[in-house]
Automatic annotation (TrEMBL):
Organism the protein comes from: Amycolatopsis rhizosphaerae
Pfam families: CMD
Lineage, highest ranks first: Bacteria, Bacillati, Actinomycetota, Actinomycetes, Pseudonocardiales
Domain of life: Bacteria
Any GO molecular function: peroxiredoxin activity
Designated name of the protein: Carboxymuconolactone decarboxylase family protein
Domain Carboxymuconolactone decarboxylase-like: 24-96
InterPro entries linked: AhpD-like (IPR029032), AhpD_core (IPR004675), CMD-like (IPR003779)
Length: 161
């Protein structure tokens, strides 16, 4: 599969991508745990069918020490026993925040209450921003059909400089 358009080969898109990547540094520097960030990014990417982001977040999570078992079960997190209650709240927020068109009220009060129970204000801010950021990344990659499979952990780190 070939991409329809090379976002990293276009000057305007590269300028945007650098700013986009820099926004992710704010989330990376937040108190939201790295494992939670990767699980949320992976789940949203699965829902949106973004192969590049699934490839990236699976590999980045594994490189950071995430287990293969947990990565394999992200798509079925409700039925899995390997996630903490806090991670389950974050995954529910990721799903409901990604599937906005499926529920006219967006994120449910029940999910929001669970998120409030497990995360402080800075972590919630990071979660909300992360869900927005990963959904934007998914959409750009799906639009141009960016292929998956060649990502190596850390390969986009130069985008933030």
């Amino acid at each position: 599969m070939n991409a329809r358009f090379d976002l990293l080969g276009n000057e305007l898109a590269v300028k945007f991508s650098k700013r986009f990547a820099n926004a992710s540094l704010v989330i990376d520097g937040s108190p939201l745990p790295k494992a939670t960030r990767e699980l949320v990014s992976l789940r949203a990417s699965q829902i949106n069918g973004c192969g590049l982001c699934i490839d990236m977040h699976t590999k980045d999570a594994a490189a950071a020490g995430e287990t293969q078992l947990r990565l394999n079960l992200v798509a079925a997190w409700r039925e899995a026993t390997v996630f903490t209650e806090a991670e389950r709240a974050a995954l529910a927020l990721a799903e409901e925040g990604t599937r906005l068109a499926d529920a006219h009220q967006g994120v449910s009060d029940e999910t929001w209450a669970e998120v409030r129970k497990h995360y402080d204000d800075d972590q919630i801010a990071a979660l909300v921003c992360l869900v927005g950021l990963i959904n934007a990344a998914n959409r750009m990659n799906v639009i141009v059909r960016h292929p998956a499979g060649s990502y190596e952990p850390g390969m986009f780190e130069s985008m933030t400089s």
